[in-house]
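#onboarding

Welcome to the new folks! Below is a worked example of what a typical request in this channel looks like: someone posts a single protein sequence, and someone else replies with the predicted structure as tokens. Don't worry about understanding the tokens yet, we'll cover that in week two.

Example request:
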Amino acid sequence: MKHLFRIITLTFVLVSVGFGATRVAYLRPGPMMKIPFSSVSQSPYLFTAGFGSELHNFSPFNTANGGYFSMETAGWTFGFSTATGADTTRLANLEVSTYKAPIEFGFHLQRRVFARNNVSFSVGLQDIVFENSTGGLNLDPKELSFFGIVSSQKAMGKYSTNMFIGFGTGGFGAIDTVQIDTLSKQPTGTNAGVFAGAIVKTPYLEKWGGVDIVGEFDGNGINVGLRIPLTSDYRLNLGFTHIEKLPKWKERYWEGHAGMTIGFEISAPRGSGIKTPGGGPSPAPLQPGPINMADMDTTLMMADYTVNTLRDSMGLMTNEMRNLITRLSAMEQHSKFLEDSLKAVRLNNNVSEQNMNNAMRHLSRSLRYFYAGNYRASLQEVEAALELNPNLALAYARRGSIYYKLGDIQRATINWNLALRMDPEYDDVRNVLKALHENRLKSTSMIED
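Example response:
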């Protein structure tokens, strides 16, 4: 049993010595170039597929190519990729190389184990790579990488960012970049290292998901790239790998050599995915899949602010309605007061009119008594008329005439003056007073009407 274990271990070591890291940028699940990703929620896409290529030299022409497929369900992310590595033995001055890179088949598995607010943590197994070489289909343990990664998402105005930091083994460990070629003897053992990255979603081409700016350190070098949406479902991936080694572009190819990358991606939306104005799914703020909880919190805060504002507006409208009702009640009371006042005026007018009519009847009877020579009865009727209406000039003039007949000149004069004061245009009274003053009243007719 011990011998069998030693044989298996030796086989794995020999395989790891035989081949170097040839995985191509953008082939792994997620929006990053060579590092894994983590998100707080499920991707809006049912699956994502595409291809990518790394150009390592123009003369001679040297590339690495591959395709991929990935999907996410119930917190699990699954991916499959196939790639053909670059020629790791080719020198810059050679036109022909006999080296033929093996075809690789890779599997990727990832699980989101924690998500709260805008922070998530995922663990996974990356690059379970089988190489179809001349010796058959072999597992390459050097590519195998266990990892754990933490992500933090944040919105900054129209921009949103997702930053990653993690620890992994295998491909995330430091590699030898000065060896003659990858077929020579390499150090054995399990490498490990730290990786980090960030992706910034911009508002450019926002109706199709926005342009993404990618930057990362994959444990061996710095990669930068752009993810440009062609439509809401198609995206063009561009970038550079290990840009710190671009000055050595014309030198011999080695592991971790700088390269230009280009890729194409297609995504199929889920049945319940939110649609964009372009008709496709609306990717989460950090495509493909992570939903920016900060944006959601901001949206909820704005909605809550709007609801509170509407509630305050409704309160102000309610108070205004109460004020209007109070003012209306006051106006109704004032209207009732005016109505009562009008009724009182009408009643007073009716009473005055009735008193006038009664007073005139008394004056009419006093005139009959006056003609009959019954001056005392006539005076009583005048007094009754003045009780009903004390402002009758005719009554004072009649009483003055009665006193004159009774021989009381002084009282007669007083009453005639009162009548003239009541009615300054009472010419008959003025004539009587003038005649009295001139001692010719006997020839002047008395006031009877």
